[in-house]
Write a sequence for this structure.
């Protein structure tokens, strides 16, 4: 990393770019962006923590597990499917628990691995990207992104079944 920074600074000096002024300007713009998206991120973090603390995730899992079991989804990944669009850290903790309890080479572990690599933290991404440019109407994006997350879950199960 220090070598990369040195190359960038040397290149800037060769091209006669005011390196420090350019860096300062970029940092200033970064703080402006952070300032504009901070309220959205704080709201999202509070909502995620309330969702987990309220027991809503457990309630939803109990309701969805029979249908997921009927469709061939391992019941162990249902909480991860529900939490992944909302919280990257929470879904990573669930992934780690699946590895500990069932092993990374189990069907649930393999499906969870594919799911972790092929889905996005949808609500976080929408909050950051749309919040940074001030877009308020997200309904079509949200529907499409959640449909993509569901498709990724189905394809994760099918892919692991085909590969085993």
């Amino acid at each position: 990393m220090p070598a990369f920074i040195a190359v960038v600074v040397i290149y800037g000096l060769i091209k006669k770019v005011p390196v420090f002024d350019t860096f300062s300007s970029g940092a200033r713009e970064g703080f402006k962006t952070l300032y504009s998206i901070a309220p959205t991120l704080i709201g999202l973090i509070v909502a995620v923590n309330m969702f987990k603390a309220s027991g809503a995730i457990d309630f939803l899992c109990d309701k969805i597990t029979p249908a997921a079991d009927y469709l061939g989804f391992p019941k162990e990944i249902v909480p991860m499917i529900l939490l992944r669009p909302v919280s990257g850290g929470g879904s990573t903790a669930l992934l780690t628990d699946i590895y500990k309890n069932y092993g990374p080479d189990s069907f649930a572990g393999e499906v969870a691995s594919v799911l972790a690599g092929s889905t996005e933290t949808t609500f976080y991404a929408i909050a950051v990207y749309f919040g940074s440019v001030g877009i308020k109407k997200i309904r079509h994006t949200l529907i499409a992104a959640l449909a993509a997350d569901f498709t990724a879950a189905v394809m994760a199960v099918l892919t692991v079944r085909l590969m085993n």
Observations:
- The chain has one domain: 34-163.
- The mean pLDDT is 87.
- Helices lie at 2-14, 19-53, 56-70, 78-83, 88-102, 107-118, 122-133, 139-163.
- The chain has eight helices and no strands.
